[in-house]
Amino acid sequence: MIRRRLATQQRLATQQRLATQQRLATQRRLPIRRLALGLTAAALLAASVLAQPAAQAGSAVRSWPRHVYAPYFETWTPGTIPAVAAASGARYFSLAFLQTAAPGSCTVTWDGDATLPIPGPHYQDQIAALRFLGGDVMPTFGGYTSDSTGTEIADSCASVSQIAAAYQAVITSYHVTRLDSEPAPLDMGAEAITAAQNVHRQLAALYPDRGPQQLWAMEGMTILPGIDDYPGKTEITYLGDTRRILAFARQHGLGLLSIWAIQRDNGGCPGTIDSDTCSGVAQPAWAFSHVLEPFTR
Predict the structure, then answer these.
(1) 17 or 62: which carries more pLDDT confidence?
(2) Where are the alpha helices (DSSP H) in the chain?
(3) What CA–CA distance (Å, rounded) separates 150 from 78?
(4) Is 46 left (phi over 0), alpha (psi -120 to 50) or beta?
Protein backbone atom coordinates (compact mmCIF):
# COMPACT_ATOMS: atom_id res chain seq x y z
CA MET A 1 0.00 0.00 0.00
CA ILE A 2 2.84 2.41 0.90
CA ARG A 3 4.62 1.71 -2.36
CA ARG A 4 1.40 2.16 -4.33
CA ARG A 5 0.73 5.57 -2.74
CA LEU A 6 4.32 6.68 -3.33
CA ALA A 7 4.22 5.49 -6.93
CA THR A 8 0.98 7.43 -7.58
CA GLN A 9 2.37 10.56 -5.96
CA GLN A 10 5.61 10.25 -7.87
CA ARG A 11 3.78 9.79 -11.15
CA LEU A 12 1.90 13.05 -10.57
CA ALA A 13 5.10 14.87 -9.62
CA THR A 14 6.83 13.49 -12.70
CA GLN A 15 4.00 14.65 -14.95
CA GLN A 16 4.15 18.14 -13.47
CA ARG A 17 7.92 18.38 -13.85
CA LEU A 18 7.97 17.11 -17.43
CA ALA A 19 5.17 19.47 -18.42
CA THR A 20 7.02 22.41 -16.91
CA GLN A 21 10.24 21.50 -18.69
CA GLN A 22 8.44 21.17 -22.01
CA ARG A 23 6.84 24.60 -21.53
CA LEU A 24 10.21 26.16 -20.68
CA ALA A 25 11.76 24.54 -23.72
CA THR A 26 9.13 26.16 -25.94
CA GLN A 27 9.36 29.60 -24.35
CA ARG A 28 13.14 29.80 -23.86
CA ARG A 29 14.33 27.40 -26.60
CA LEU A 30 16.26 25.35 -24.10
CA PRO A 31 18.58 22.69 -25.52
CA ILE A 32 17.08 19.27 -26.08
CA ARG A 33 19.64 17.90 -23.62
CA ARG A 34 17.78 19.58 -20.74
CA LEU A 35 14.59 17.72 -21.61
CA ALA A 36 16.54 14.48 -21.59
CA LEU A 37 17.91 15.39 -18.17
CA GLY A 38 14.41 16.07 -16.91
CA LEU A 39 13.36 12.61 -18.02
CA THR A 40 16.45 11.19 -16.33
CA ALA A 41 15.69 12.91 -13.02
CA ALA A 42 12.06 11.79 -13.11
CA ALA A 43 13.05 8.20 -13.81
CA LEU A 44 15.63 8.22 -11.01
CA LEU A 45 13.07 9.56 -8.55
CA ALA A 46 10.53 6.93 -9.47
CA ALA A 47 13.07 4.14 -9.22
CA SER A 48 14.40 5.42 -5.91
CA VAL A 49 10.96 5.65 -4.30
CA LEU A 50 9.86 2.21 -5.46
CA ALA A 51 13.14 0.66 -4.33
CA GLN A 52 12.75 1.80 -0.73
CA PRO A 53 11.98 -1.08 1.64
CA ALA A 54 8.67 -0.83 3.44
CA ALA A 55 10.24 0.02 6.81
CA GLN A 56 12.30 2.81 5.34
CA ALA A 57 9.37 4.11 3.32
CA GLY A 58 7.49 4.62 6.54
CA SER A 59 10.28 6.66 8.13
CA ALA A 60 12.75 8.27 5.72
CA VAL A 61 10.51 8.63 2.66
CA ARG A 62 7.35 10.62 3.25
CA SER A 63 4.37 10.84 0.92
CA TRP A 64 3.59 14.49 0.23
CA PRO A 65 0.01 15.82 0.42
CA ARG A 66 -1.85 16.07 -2.89
CA HIS A 67 -2.09 19.84 -2.38
CA VAL A 68 0.83 21.47 -0.60
CA TYR A 69 2.28 24.85 0.35
CA ALA A 70 6.08 24.55 0.02
CA PRO A 71 7.85 27.94 0.23
CA TYR A 72 11.43 28.35 -0.89
CA PHE A 73 14.03 28.32 1.88
CA GLU A 74 17.11 30.42 1.14
CA THR A 75 19.90 28.18 2.38
CA TRP A 76 22.52 30.95 2.33
CA THR A 77 20.71 33.09 4.91
CA PRO A 78 20.85 32.74 8.72
CA GLY A 79 18.40 30.44 10.49
CA THR A 80 17.62 26.74 10.42
CA ILE A 81 14.86 24.84 8.66
CA PRO A 82 13.26 23.48 11.89
CA ALA A 83 13.34 26.92 13.52
CA VAL A 84 11.66 28.57 10.53
CA ALA A 85 9.13 25.72 10.38
CA ALA A 86 8.28 26.11 14.06
CA ALA A 87 7.96 29.89 13.81
CA SER A 88 6.07 30.09 10.51
CA GLY A 89 3.88 26.98 10.67
CA ALA A 90 5.09 25.80 7.24
CA ARG A 91 6.15 22.15 7.11
CA TYR A 92 7.24 21.61 3.51
CA PHE A 93 10.11 23.55 1.92
CA SER A 94 11.85 23.89 -1.44
CA LEU A 95 15.54 24.14 -0.54
CA ALA A 96 17.41 26.62 -2.76
CA PHE A 97 19.85 26.15 -4.42
CA LEU A 98 21.93 23.27 -5.78
CA GLN A 99 24.59 24.17 -8.35
CA THR A 100 28.18 23.35 -9.22
CA ALA A 101 31.05 25.25 -7.60
CA ALA A 102 32.54 26.23 -10.97
CA PRO A 103 31.66 25.98 -14.69
CA GLY A 104 32.68 22.62 -16.11
CA SER A 105 32.15 20.74 -12.85
CA CYS A 106 29.76 17.79 -12.59
CA THR A 107 29.52 17.84 -8.78
CA VAL A 108 26.59 19.67 -7.22
CA THR A 109 27.00 21.72 -4.06
CA TRP A 110 24.79 23.89 -1.90
CA ASP A 111 24.90 27.47 -3.22
CA GLY A 112 28.02 26.81 -5.28
CA ASP A 113 30.13 26.34 -2.15
CA ALA A 114 32.80 23.70 -2.76
CA THR A 115 32.92 22.97 0.98
CA LEU A 116 29.26 21.85 0.89
CA PRO A 117 29.22 19.05 -1.71
CA ILE A 118 26.63 16.35 -2.22
CA PRO A 119 26.79 13.72 -0.90
CA GLY A 120 27.64 15.30 2.42
CA PRO A 121 26.30 15.97 5.92
CA HIS A 122 24.95 19.46 5.33
CA TYR A 123 21.23 19.85 6.26
CA GLN A 124 20.87 16.16 7.17
CA ASP A 125 20.07 16.87 10.84
CA GLN A 126 17.78 19.77 9.97
CA ILE A 127 15.81 17.70 7.46
CA ALA A 128 15.48 14.88 9.97
CA ALA A 129 14.13 17.34 12.53
CA LEU A 130 11.66 18.73 9.99
CA ARG A 131 10.43 15.23 9.16
CA PHE A 132 9.95 14.62 12.85
CA LEU A 133 7.61 17.63 12.79
CA GLY A 134 5.67 15.99 9.93
CA GLY A 135 7.22 17.89 7.02
CA ASP A 136 9.68 17.30 4.19
CA VAL A 137 11.91 19.06 1.65
CA MET A 138 12.31 19.33 -2.12
CA PRO A 139 15.91 20.16 -3.17
CA THR A 140 16.00 22.81 -5.89
CA PHE A 141 18.54 23.06 -8.71
CA GLY A 142 19.38 26.31 -10.43
CA GLY A 143 18.67 29.89 -9.41
CA TYR A 144 19.70 33.25 -10.85
CA THR A 145 23.36 32.96 -9.84
CA SER A 146 23.81 29.58 -11.51
CA ASP A 147 22.14 30.84 -14.69
CA SER A 148 24.43 33.87 -14.84
CA THR A 149 27.66 32.01 -13.97
CA GLY A 150 27.23 28.77 -15.93
CA THR A 151 27.02 26.65 -12.79
CA GLU A 152 23.55 25.19 -13.32
CA ILE A 153 24.26 21.46 -13.54
CA ALA A 154 22.79 21.09 -17.04
CA ASP A 155 25.01 23.93 -18.31
CA SER A 156 28.14 23.10 -16.33
CA CYS A 157 28.42 19.37 -16.96
CA ALA A 158 28.64 17.93 -20.49
CA SER A 159 28.08 14.31 -19.43
CA VAL A 160 24.48 13.18 -19.11
CA SER A 161 25.56 10.13 -17.12
CA GLN A 162 27.47 12.28 -14.62
CA ILE A 163 24.50 14.63 -14.28
CA ALA A 164 22.29 11.59 -13.65
CA ALA A 165 24.75 10.51 -10.97
CA ALA A 166 24.51 13.96 -9.38
CA TYR A 167 20.71 13.73 -9.31
CA GLN A 168 20.98 10.26 -7.81
CA ALA A 169 23.37 11.53 -5.14
CA VAL A 170 20.79 14.11 -4.03
CA ILE A 171 17.94 11.58 -4.03
CA THR A 172 19.95 9.00 -2.10
CA SER A 173 21.56 11.40 0.37
CA TYR A 174 18.35 13.13 1.41
CA HIS A 175 15.79 10.34 0.71
CA VAL A 176 13.62 12.74 -1.30
CA THR A 177 10.75 11.99 -3.64
CA ARG A 178 10.75 15.37 -5.40
CA LEU A 179 13.30 17.59 -7.12
CA ASP A 180 12.78 21.11 -8.39
CA SER A 181 14.66 23.30 -10.87
CA GLU A 182 14.87 26.89 -12.07
CA PRO A 183 12.13 28.67 -10.12
CA ALA A 184 10.41 31.53 -11.89
CA PRO A 185 8.37 33.57 -9.38
CA LEU A 186 5.18 35.19 -10.62
CA ASP A 187 4.14 38.66 -9.55
CA MET A 188 0.69 40.09 -8.74
CA GLY A 189 -2.47 38.04 -8.27
CA ALA A 190 -4.03 38.71 -11.66
CA GLU A 191 -0.75 38.09 -13.49
CA ALA A 192 -0.20 34.83 -11.62
CA ILE A 193 -3.69 33.56 -12.38
CA THR A 194 -3.37 34.53 -16.05
CA ALA A 195 -0.06 32.66 -16.24
CA ALA A 196 -1.61 29.56 -14.66
CA GLN A 197 -4.46 29.65 -17.17
CA ASN A 198 -1.98 29.92 -20.05
CA VAL A 199 0.00 26.94 -18.75
CA HIS A 200 -3.24 24.98 -18.42
CA ARG A 201 -3.98 25.52 -22.11
CA GLN A 202 -0.47 24.41 -23.02
CA LEU A 203 -0.80 21.28 -20.89
CA ALA A 204 -4.12 20.48 -22.58
CA ALA A 205 -2.33 20.50 -25.93
CA LEU A 206 0.50 18.34 -24.58
CA TYR A 207 -1.81 15.86 -22.82
CA PRO A 208 -5.05 15.68 -24.86
CA ASP A 209 -6.07 12.45 -23.10
CA ARG A 210 -6.22 14.11 -19.65
CA GLY A 211 -9.20 15.88 -18.17
CA PRO A 212 -9.18 19.42 -16.69
CA GLN A 213 -8.81 18.21 -13.09
CA GLN A 214 -5.78 16.10 -13.95
CA LEU A 215 -4.18 19.01 -15.78
CA TRP A 216 -4.75 21.49 -12.94
CA ALA A 217 -3.23 19.01 -10.48
CA MET A 218 -0.03 19.07 -12.55
CA GLU A 219 0.43 22.81 -12.00
CA GLY A 220 1.99 24.86 -9.22
CA MET A 221 2.24 28.59 -8.57
CA THR A 222 5.05 30.54 -6.89
CA ILE A 223 4.66 34.16 -5.79
CA LEU A 224 7.18 36.69 -4.48
CA PRO A 225 5.72 38.36 -1.37
CA GLY A 226 5.96 42.13 -1.39
CA ILE A 227 8.17 44.23 -3.69
CA ASP A 228 10.19 42.49 -6.39
CA ASP A 229 13.39 43.75 -8.04
CA TYR A 230 11.75 46.10 -10.55
CA PRO A 231 13.24 49.57 -9.79
CA GLY A 232 9.94 51.42 -10.13
CA LYS A 233 8.39 49.52 -7.20
CA THR A 234 5.30 48.94 -9.36
CA GLU A 235 5.28 45.14 -9.15
CA ILE A 236 4.10 44.31 -5.66
CA THR A 237 2.33 41.21 -4.38
CA TYR A 238 0.08 42.00 -1.43
CA LEU A 239 -1.73 39.70 0.97
CA GLY A 240 -4.94 40.35 -0.96
CA ASP A 241 -3.27 39.01 -4.14
CA THR A 242 -2.21 35.93 -2.19
CA ARG A 243 -5.76 35.27 -1.01
CA ARG A 244 -6.98 35.47 -4.61
CA ILE A 245 -4.31 32.99 -5.67
CA LEU A 246 -5.25 30.64 -2.83
CA ALA A 247 -8.93 30.78 -3.82
CA PHE A 248 -8.03 30.10 -7.46
CA ALA A 249 -5.76 27.18 -6.51
CA ARG A 250 -8.45 25.62 -4.33
CA GLN A 251 -11.15 26.10 -6.93
CA HIS A 252 -9.10 24.46 -9.67
CA GLY A 253 -7.24 21.85 -7.60
CA LEU A 254 -3.63 22.92 -8.22
CA GLY A 255 -0.95 20.65 -6.78
CA LEU A 256 1.49 23.19 -5.32
CA LEU A 257 1.67 26.74 -3.95
CA SER A 258 4.95 28.36 -2.95
CA ILE A 259 6.58 31.70 -2.17
CA TRP A 260 10.01 33.11 -2.88
CA ALA A 261 11.07 32.88 -0.15
CA ILE A 262 10.11 32.00 3.43
CA GLN A 263 12.77 34.33 4.88
CA ARG A 264 11.08 37.28 3.14
CA ASP A 265 7.80 36.68 4.95
CA ASN A 266 7.95 39.61 7.38
CA GLY A 267 7.44 43.38 7.30
CA GLY A 268 10.82 44.41 8.65
CA CYS A 269 11.87 46.70 5.76
CA PRO A 270 8.96 48.75 4.34
CA GLY A 271 9.79 50.10 0.87
CA THR A 272 12.88 47.92 0.29
CA ILE A 273 13.24 46.35 -3.16
CA ASP A 274 13.79 42.59 -3.50
CA SER A 275 15.36 41.88 -0.12
CA ASP A 276 16.37 38.35 0.89
CA THR A 277 15.19 38.92 4.47
CA CYS A 278 11.91 40.90 4.27
CA SER A 279 9.04 41.61 1.89
CA GLY A 280 9.23 45.39 1.66
CA VAL A 281 5.54 45.80 2.56
CA ALA A 282 3.84 46.33 5.90
CA GLN A 283 2.77 42.91 7.20
CA PRO A 284 2.86 40.76 10.33
CA ALA A 285 5.56 38.10 10.48
CA TRP A 286 4.67 34.96 8.46
CA ALA A 287 1.49 36.59 7.13
CA PHE A 288 1.83 35.21 3.59
CA SER A 289 2.60 31.73 4.94
CA HIS A 290 -0.39 31.79 7.26
CA VAL A 291 -2.63 32.62 4.30
CA LEU A 292 -1.26 29.71 2.24
CA GLU A 293 -0.60 27.02 4.87
CA PRO A 294 -4.25 25.79 4.92
CA PHE A 295 -3.74 24.76 1.27
CA THR A 296 -1.75 21.73 2.48
CA ARG A 297 -4.12 18.80 2.89
Answers:
(1) 62
(2) 2-28, 32-51, 54-59, 81-88, 124-132, 144-149, 153-156, 160-174, 189-206, 212-217, 239-252, 287-292
(3) 26
(4) alpha
Task: Write the CA distances from 294 to 138, 260, 297, integer angstroms.
Answer: 19, 18, 7
Of the candidates 271, 281, 208, the one whose C-alpha atom is nearest the C-alpha of residue 242 is 281
CB 175 within 8 A of CB 61: yes
State pLDDT tens for residues 142-175.
888 888 899 998 889 988 889 888 988 999 999 9
| C-alpha–C-alpha distance, residues 252 and 250, integer Å | 5
Distance in angstroms between the alpha carbons of the first and the last residue of the chain = 19
Chain-wide mean pLDDT for the chain?
81
d(CA 40, CA 43): 5
Provide the residue ranges of all domains of the chain, joining segments of one domain with +: 2-181, 189-295
